[in-house]
Amino acid sequence: MITRLLIANRGEIARRIMRTCRALGIDTVAVYSTADANAAFVTEADLAVPIGGAAPADSYLRGDVILAAAQRTGADAIHPGYGFLSENADFARAVSEAGITWVGPPPSAIEAMGSKIAAKQRMQSADVPLLPSVELTDLNLDAESGAAADAVAAADAADAVAGIGYPLLIKASAGGGGRGMRVVEGPDQLADAIDGARREAASAFGDATIYAEKFVSPSKHVEVQIFGDSHGSVVHFGERECSVQRRHQKVIEEAPSPSIDADTRTALHAAAVAAGKAIGYQNAGTVEFLLDPADNAFYFLEVNTRLQVEHPVTEEVFQRDLVALQLAVASGTPVPTQTEIGHPQGHSVEARIYAEDPTRNYLPSTGTVRAFSVPDGVRLDAAFDEAGVVGPDYDAMIAKVISVGPNRPAAVSRLAKALRGTVLVGIEHNIPLLVRALGDPGFANGGDTELLERNQPETLGRPLLEGEERAIALLAGAIALQARHRSAATHTPGASSGFRNVATVPQVAQFAVGVDEHRVEYRFQRGRLVSAAVDGAPLNVEVAGDPNEHSQRVRLVVDGIHRGYEVDVYGDSVAVRHSLGVVIARQIERFVEPGSEVPSGSLVATMPGTIRAVEVNEGDTVEEGQTVVVMEAMKMELAIAATTTGTVVSVNVGVGDTVDAGSPLVIIE
User: Fold this and answer.
1) φ and ψ at 313, to 5 degrees?
2) What is the pTM of this model?
3) Quick check: 615 and 627 in contact, CB under 8 A?
4) What does the DSSP assignment read for 101-134?
5) Domains along the chain?
6) Region 313-341: what's the mean pLDDT?
7) What is the pLDDT of residues 173-189, one digit of tens each?
8) Are 370 and 426 in contact (CB under 8 A)?
9) CA 309 to CA 307: how far, in whole Å?
């Protein structure tokens, strides 16, 4: 029996594992970086050990330090979560050699699947269907710059992929999560795609090995949850579909898949179990497949030798705690039989909340979360409860919202309603995009991996309430703020909310909602709202009741129908909740803070990060949209592009520099 478990991970997955441990009476040990010292998973653990600096390479990727923390605290088992060291065979081997139980597959299985290239070769021997692919590692693409060297490199790359054809997908052999992936539509894009993929793969996984694979479009992403034990059994817990993706990173997942028939399902499960047996698999793993909807054919992609981010949807439809089963299997307990596992009941859907702004090309967002709440009726796996800090050093996913229902439409509807009522203040996020994706006709019909590519992120990611609905919500927010200010006033306590010495002059409040700015004007007379306008457009709205008595709740009458708005204030932001959605509005200050402005023409860092490439020099002429600087933040590369055509008059950064949000990088005249 495991009695004390060290969790070699952080954030949402660390808290998820702790939840199961508490139910089983197992002590937990957290390890944390300097950036996570006050994080929820640290304070919730029974014991916590600092392991180094903010960067993963200085903390969560230091296997020797984590192993020492386990020995120091008397932990008899280590669970790696997902990411970081979860698929590191050397770390798994070191844990076992230290006499500590490794909650995961044996090192041999991790090594067999750690390289996607080697994994494909092994699956071919097991008669698992594969897509055509070719390794690109040995190409001479690091030659000195120059027309001749570039031409040789491009020719080598073109020859290597000739047997695959276009379009093709460049992938990192050592990792996943969309990092190191590039879609190549034609030969002219190949060299740049390979260069970028290798750089990103080396940064994210410490391994620049890449390969090219036939790109199937449209396609669907279906995976099978398998479990193996030390007694030679391998079973499955059905399949999940992860078709809604952004840049090859999963966004919405569900179980079971709505896209396959009974015969395909049976064949898919059999192929996944065969893959597990071919590598002597133990503990939790996921066999991922690409499904071609044209003929229902499926092709092996990879085996993730760990618990998956999307495991909750499987838990919901099978009513099994997969983390508890992981701990049991690691302790030597056999897996249940396929008959005991049974069949999925109902349908479950999961949506990932990312700290990123879809309206700005999915730009990662950092900062302090001042409020976070999700309505009841759904499952929430999150890095924090009501508040927390999102830094630049880790993945942008901060939470998962999971619904379950008797069927797919019911589960989708429940999840969409919960997301519409979710409040997240302090950072930009993708919640509006999730709601619109769930309501997309393509998703209703089963979805595919191009759903988010077919729609403009600027449209999908805009705040849910638009037009008059947003205007009315902002009016409710302004009235609530006014009432709040009056209740805190220490002078003229008898004055009603909205009192003005000059009765004909309206109250004014200015807000920013995303990239939009709004001016709210309203006027009370003898306690009654007599006029209201947003951005100059009049609103035919009445206030029900005295706003002095409703600092948190405002009731408005619109076209004879009463509406309730819940209003909360968090610093300079106002959250207005209505059944149609939530509006997060930032109050715009009337006066600019001295020193806060940057020189005209500046391209600034939108978040903290590290400079990976500087593509221009002083005196260069640049075109609008041309990449001038490449930053890395939240494990992703961000291309900073020129916003106008002009001349570079100043370059303020170099490769390797660390910059803060708002720092001028390049100035273009």
Assistant:
1) -65, -35
2) 0.83
3) yes
4) EESS--HHHHHHHHSHHHHHHHHHHTT--B--EE
5) 4-103 (3.40.50.20), 132-214 (3.30.1490.20), 223-245+253-460 (3.30.470.20), 467-587 (3.30.700.30), 602-668 (2.40.50.100)
6) 98
7) 887 767 888 999 998 89
8) yes
9) 7
